[in-house]
Amino acid sequence: MQIYLNGRFSSRDEATVSVNDRGFLFGDGIYEVIRVVNGRLFRLEAHLKRMDRGIQKLEIPFSDKQRDELPGIMEKLVAENRLQSGEGTIYLQITRGAALPRTHAYPPAETPPTVMVMASPFVPDTDILEKGGHAITVPDIRWSRCDLKTVNLLPNVMAAQEEKKRGAGGVLMVRDGFITEGYKNNAIAVFGGTLWTYPDSPYILAGITRDVVFEIAEEEGIPVKLMPVSDEEIRTADEVMLTGTITDIQPVVSIDGHKIGTGHPGPITRLLQKGLRHRMDTE
After folding, report:
1. CB distance 34 to 89 below 8 Å
2. pLDDT tens digits, residue range 55-82?
3. Which of 149, 164, 184, 259 is catalytic?
């Protein structure tokens, strides 16, 4: 498996990162995951735009030249790792780099960032996409800048472990009595033919797949309401779904043991799934 790290391509086993790297010491960095379908990078510019925002907000020095090189690096990794057919993912991580002494404040601006890119095969979970998942709710204990896709993921890791322990197929996070999103995806509920989802704010990550859903909904005449849904209200929804780069559009057929709608994936979820799949196969 070939990866890119700080200007050179090498095998994953050979690549090493300094123990002084601020991503390792402080979680001081951002990341993106990009879907690869038959060699094509799906919605690459949207991911890079979100990356740009994270870099800007965290004030990580990252030059225009480095940014412009990323698509070519990704395309080379897709070829080197034989992902021209089938599906895969690109993982991109940029940290503030390695610096001494270890201090919390940012190091000098000339400190080179650590840039790592890797490409891996990916197999969608077609069973859960077809049948739907049984989700659980957990408290949203994350920090208040979830709109930045940083590598500070310990609460997400804990939510994923709770999902695993309880044998669930999805997680909905609850903050102040309202569903925010999943630990790796956005949450959308359907009430009377209208999509309801948490509005853009520091409490959620504006998802690329979520934006695709909005596009499809507009084309199909499906209203969208950017409005929080309480953890009680969502149990009465006609349909619930999770959306994300590696989640696609996953139906949720129960929440904490409460059946959603008919207990099967609903017609709007199916319509959106079809629209997303068409875009992934043709764009």
Report:
1. yes
2. 999 999 999 999 999 999 999 999 999 9
3. 149
Peptide bond into 228 cis (omega under 30): no
Contact 97, 114 (CB under 8 A): yes
Q: Is 259 a catalytic residue?
A: no
Q: Is 30 exposed, middle or buried (0-12, 13-18, 19+ CB in 10 A)?
A: buried
Tell me the three state secondary structure of residue 255: strand
In whole angstroms, give the CA distance from residue 39 to residue 217. Answer: 27
CATH tag for 126-282 (out of 3.20.20.70, 2.40.260.10, 3.30.70.920, 3.20.10.10): 3.20.10.10
Count CB neighbours of 9 within 10 A.
14
What tokens appear for 231 in the block? 């953890």
The answer to whether the beta carbons of residues 180 and 187 sit under 8 Å apart is yes
Residue pLDDT, tens place only, 91-129: 999 999 999 999 999 999 999 999 999 999 999 999 999
Q: How many Cα atoms within 13 Å fall on the side-chain side of residue 207?
A: 28
Is 2-121 CATH 3.50.50.60?
no
The 3-state DSSP class for residue 55 equals helix
Q: With the C-alpha atoms ordered 21, 26, 27, 28, is the resulting torsion angle positive or negative?
A: negative
User: What does pTM read for this prediction?
Assistant: 0.96
Instruction: Parse the chain into domains and list their residue ranges.
Output: 2-121, 126-282
CA separation for the pair 142, 149 (Å, rounded): 12
Distances (CA, A) of 108 to 23, 103, 104, 115, 152: 16, 11, 12, 17, 22
Q: How far is CA 173 from the centre of its chain?
A: 15
